[in-house]
Amino acid sequence: MSAVRTVAVLKGGRSAEREVSLNTGAQVASALASADFRVVEIDTGDAGFIEAIRVSGADVAFICLHGRWGEDGTIQGLLELLDLPYVGSGVLASAAAMDKVMSKRLFELHGLKTPEWATVRRGEPFDTDALVMQLGTRTVVKPASEGSAIGVTIVHAPEELPVALEESFRHDAVALVERFVAGAEVTVGVLGNEHPRALPSLEIVPEHEFYDYESKYVPGMSRHIIPARISAEADAECVRLALEAHAALGCWGMSRADTIVTADGEVYLLEVNTIPGMTATSLFPDAARAAGIEFPQLCAQLVELALEDRG
Q: Active site residue: 17, 72, 178, 286, which one?
């Protein structure tokens, strides 16, 4: 690790999660500095950010961007062109994980249990009765390619569906409509490259109906319980799904899988995040801490993983 002296921390950007990304970037930069790295902070929302990366002298980039143009493979593609190693998954895995519809297809292809779903495209007619018949009265509507529960609505009755879809269409041309599954929200972080390991399971107890944007980023709006209060069998299944989803998508370095565990112990995989949050209230650092990895050590380890040959 002594050969790595300079890390370009990419933060900010232009997505709906810009402010969170700036916070994440600042905390990661501070952690890396405390671990004796030279850090250059670059806001990718600035017009000259590409040149700033080029002249930074960085040995590796630490991507602290959330949502579009950060988690979706675009910044990863740019860094590939610049021949600069970077923390986290590559272009294909990032794009596939960000696209919830593509993720669902890959989960099903690999036999990973996920709630039944359908898609609705902006401007095209949809049949509410058919959706209810397929998915049930209670559903979750979310933009196909957005992060941090932005644009997500829990639909309790069929008449709420059109409004929920309109909210989703404010963020994406395609909406994912998913059968609602009641249960404990459990997330499992995965750390590593060719032989990744799962971090301890973490149960999320939000103050709101579900783990929405405010619950994620406002201190006190959710509790993190480690390990999750679920059976050993359910815990093992959460870990299995997280590791297999990481592999199915082709993730690298880190990921975090979100699952729902029902009262009778069934486990459903919801989605995978390739750039988990790295703020003081974030899930991945909490799980790593429970595994004995403090935040500066975690950031340094992710830099090391970024420099391994991806094959």
A: 17
Condensed to tens digits (0 to 9), the pLDDT of residues 157-182 reads: 999 999 999 999 999 999 999 999 99
- Please say if 271 is a catalytic residue: yes
Q: 168, 255, 273, 282: which is the annotated catalytic residue?
A: 273
From the candidates 147, 256, 282, 286, give the one annotated as an active-site residue: 256
Active site residue 277: yes
244 as an active site residue: the answer is: no
The domains of the chain are located at: 6-88, 96-112+182-306, 117-179
Q: Which portions of the chain are predicted below pLDDT 50?
A: 1, 212, 215
Q: What is the pLDDT of residues 141-155, one digit of tens each?
A: 999 987 657 899 999
pLDDT at residue 67 in the model: 84
Q: Is 148 a catalytic residue?
A: yes
Task: Note if 233 is an active site residue.
Answer: no
Q: Which of 148, 168, 255, 282 is catalytic?
A: 148
CATH superfamily membership of 117-179 = ATP-grasp fold, A domain (3.30.1490.20)
Decide yes or no: CATH 3.30.470.20 for domain 96-112+182-306.
yes
Is 309 annotated in the active site? no
Fold type of domain 6-88 = Rossmann fold (3.40.50)
Please state the three-class secondary structure of the chain as a single string. CCCCCEEEEEECCCCCCHHHHHHHHHHHHHHHHHCCCEEEEEECCCCCHHHHHHCCCCCEEEECCCCCCCCCCHHHHHHHHCCCCECCCCHHHHHHHHCHHHHHHHHHHCCCCCCCEEEEECCCCCCHHHHHHHHCCCEEEEECCCCCCCCCEEECCHHHHHHHHHHHHCCCCEEEEEECCCCEEEEEEEEECCCCEECCCEEEEECCCCCCHHHHHCCCCEEEECCCCCCHHHHHHHHHHHHHHHHHHCCCEEEEEEEEECCCCCEEEEEEECCCCCCCCCHHHHHHHHCCCCHHHHHHHHHHHHCCCCC
Catalytic-labelled residue, pool 94, 217, 282, 286: 217
